[in-house]
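[scheduler] slot 2 assigned
[scheduler] job type: sequence-to-structure, two independent chains
[scheduler] chain ordering preserved from manifest
[runner] begin chain α
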Amino acid sequence: MFELPHHGRYGYSAITRRPDYSWPQGRRLAIYFALNIEHFAYGGGLGHAMTNELPGPDARTFAWRDYGNRVGVWRMYDLFDELKAPACHLVNTAIFDYCPEVIEPIMARGDEIIAHGRTNAERQGQWWEADEKRLIEDVRDKISSHTGRAPRGWMGPWMSQSRVTPDLLQEAGYSFEMDWPGDDQPIWMQTRNGRLMSMPYSLEINDSPQILVRHHTGEEFATMIVHQFEEMLRQSERQPLVLGIALHTMIVGQPYRLYALRRALEHIVNHPQADKVWITRPGEIYDHLLSLPEGTVV
């Protein structure tokens, strides 16, 4: 038999042939809002960009990114408060040193912090195992020391992974990761010392690739959110599903994009079939799945 290289983390499973279950109160579509809160190096390293980066220290691109922490994140907190909606926040630990005030509303709201590396100026996918292990543990310890609780979820900067990232995450005590956008349900991944849950996280309903790479407008992105929600709500009659909406402070935090985003999220929160929808956080999805009989999650 012809075999291609395989990651060995999970096998094939058709979503139409899995055990059925529901979210709390019989709901069928779980939704979480994921706000990426990131910090970048000045004059080097990786980073989101609206235009071609300039040679030398690119002050305009650094400042555009920094707008997310100075302005955009606060507008997003206001929006979540207006909607009375929970959220999760994918946080670079450099934020704790650069602008610790940004963390305070997360704690006050009771929201979830997902570990998101030190900074999105780097990615660890090609690091030596010992260096990546140190990163994963240092990020865990930094969040724990500042918030009083260790993060349960991880998403690598740029969703980067090495060949051993799931192993290192499981060994460091993480419960789930969000780097494998291959399903609309959480699934179990195998590691060398046990299992780790893969939580759906979208590259499609994600403002960074849609707006910065594919050059869609804020209005078009908002329409994508609505269409994705409506279709997945219909599909969830047959299978329980998870819809993650990935947002970045410097992108949707811009007023004209925020205007369109507000319309899309209000559509979800105020939908006539809201009783079929569970607006939640990834950690709560994980907890609910653990309460189900063994074998329910593939």
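[runner] end chain α
[runner] begin chain β
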Amino acid sequence: MELLGLLVLVFGLNLVATGMTIGRDISTTLEARSTWTFLGCYRDNVDGRVLPNGEAVLAGTNAMTNVLCQSTCLQAGFSIAGTEYAGECWCGNEIINGGGLAPDGNVGCNMPCKGASDETCGGPNRLDVYSYSPSTSPASTQTTTTSGSTQHSSTSVAVQPTSTSTGTGKRGIAYSTGNPDGNATYANLFKGYNKVTWGYDWGYPSHGLDSSFEFVPMLWNLPSGSDPSWMSFVENSVPEYILGFNEPDLTYSGSSNILPADAGQGYQTYMEPFSGNVKIGLPNVLWNNKGSSSGGDYDSALWTKYFIGNCTSCHFGFAAIHYYQDCDPSNSKSSATWFQGNVTNAYETLQLPVWVTEFQCYGTDAQQISFLQEVLPWMDSQDYVARYAYFGAFPNYLVNSDGTGLSDIGVAYATT
């Protein structure tokens, strides 16, 4: 998630949609146990962990809190503890692999702890990091919230479309319906920007997406029972494309988390019946994922291989991938170079047109805009990149903080 999430991924989306205010664990609970100090929100990478020791907490990931992780690390002989992805606990005695504070401050540490919804436990590729010292003085009583830490510069006045140039038809909107009316208001802010031509909302129906956009429905997870609503929706609306399961290759709470064999059977039941009339996408997987898995020890490329092996009679019209990475990776490659390499690798591996249905680099507004200015023209010029959608159309991302217009990043995405 990551979401790479969102990533935040869908979990992060729901957080934005509800407007929930979540405090970082640096106030009353930390003050009561003054031996732990909050160091900040650190960027992490599955290829080189900042804290190398993943520890299983006694009560399980669903009970995760910062206190629980800190206690677990201390008992294991470590003096630094970090929480990530809402339910992961990582430990060490020093920050390694070139780890440092996230360039966007606390913005990426936005996922509520699975065991305490009023505090954060990191985020996608982000760690809330704490250090233990018996002599540490009481921590600051300041409480940082995700809503207060967001650094995106945005205005409360809707930005009007100024570009009349027509794009390639590839650019789309991954949008939230988490607004007071529960509809596609955020997506419809892109109306009039001719480079943006389609949208999806991680489900169906479109909840009022403007008719100037093509709506692409998604079957997010394995349905319960026969799910006649999905079958009848596709039969009656006859879309040109349909999207399949969302991040079945991952195991965090915002993913669909499906074994390849179960996903293959699900596709044969719910997707393959439409193969003669619509183009069906492979499941949406986090292609830059390494080492994280759903029910087995394999990465997302291998998950996809196993899935295809369990769906040999299925017909696929395109691949669907996600990509999340720091805007300023702690290595010699730029974020744009990483991205281009991942997208190219997906095409070379799967030999299908590629839809990048979620992607984002984690960083400041200026960093994200620079990233978009490099990768959008590149994708538009690649024949094998069929469509893409930046994460995502909701407040403090592509939409401004009060939901009335596009943010600076949103304008860049719509016009570059």
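[runner] end chain β
[qc] chain β: The radius of gyration is 21 Å.
[scheduler] slot 2 released
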